[in-house]
Write a structure and sequence with these properties.
By secondary structure, the protein is an alpha+beta fold. It contains 4 helices and 18 strands. The longest helix is centred in the first third of the chain and has 19 residues.
Length: 265
């Protein structure tokens, strides 16, 4: 009975993870035959409309032009389409979108997640390779017979896994901009369950202001065994360096990438 209960809980948990994921990353074929809803925008962004929607597959004519050179917001917001075809072009994809009124086309660029305006109805079923393709195996500069694993930065967050004297070490590195300058030394990650993962003597780096008037904060945390278990099961929702806080939006991706990293040997 206990085993059955545990299995049911696991299935529910896996279902929640799948439904929480909307972004297909470099695998837009996962969207094929799925219904997608055009998400509402924040009030300050409504005037800019929606980018990358077109009337024609050649992507020459913007659909419902124009709000600030983009498709008119009111013509697309909350509409539900079925993705009926996915075409791969050099450097991007074209999604064919159909509803009971018309067919239009969306230029999908995997590297620009902020341009993706959809919620997938029912969520995406995520295969293992979806997250693992973000992780690379690198040779150690000190010992070419050894290696480490590193994930690509997403929202400025990257994970490392390496062996030092037969001990496996995990590190999370994170970077974000801020217009505020602080000399405080505390560093932490906040998870969706309220847990805090904090650093011990963190190595904080702050770059001078850039052309946008932002300082660039960077820090890393060497993870304890309990931190590893937390990151395997709960999304990151906030990062903080020197008292400066930044919201984390893509916790679904971070948890998937970290779980794949743990399996690497």
């Amino acid at each position: 009975m206990k085993k059955l209960t545990l299995l049911l809980l696991l299935l529910v948990f896996m279902s929640v993870l799948a439904n929480a994921q909307n972004y297909p990353d470099f695998f837009p074929q996962l969207l094929l035959n799925k219904e997608v809803k055009v998400l509402e925008k924040k009030t300050e962004s409504v005037k800019y409309g929606y980018d990358n929607f077109y009337e024609d597959k050649s992507l020459k004519t913007k659909y419902a032009c124009c709000d600030s050179y983009n498709s008119k917001y009111d013509n697309l917001v909350n509409r539900i389409f079925t993705v009926t075809k996915v075409d791969m072009i050099s450097g991007y994809f074209i999604l064919t979108l159909t509803d009971d009124k018309e067919t239009l086309y969306f230029k999908y660029e995997p590297r620009y997640r902020f341009k993706y305006p959809f919620e997938v109805i029912g969520g995406l079923e995520i295969p293992d390779y979806y997250y693992c393709h973000h992780i690379s195996k690198k040779p150690s500069s000190q010992d070419p017979t050894k290696h480490f694993f590193i994930s690509e930065k997403e929202e400025g967050i990257s994970f490392f896994k390496m062996k030092l004297d037969e001990i496996t070490v995990y590190i999370v590195d994170f970077t974000f901009p801020s217009k505020v300058l602080s000399d405080a030394k505390e560093v932490y990650l906040k998870l969706e369950n309220g847990a805090i993962i904090s650093g011990v003597n963190p190595n904080i780096k702050i770059e001078p202001k850039n052309e946008y008037g932002n300082y660039l904060y960077n820090a890393n945390i060497t993870l304890k065994s309990e931190d590893i278990e937390l990151l395997k099961n709960y999304k990151i929702v906030e990062e903080s360096i020197g008292g400066i806080k930044e919201e984390v939006e893509y916790g679904d991706t971070h948890i998937g990438v970290f779980n794949c990293l743990v399996t690497k040997e």
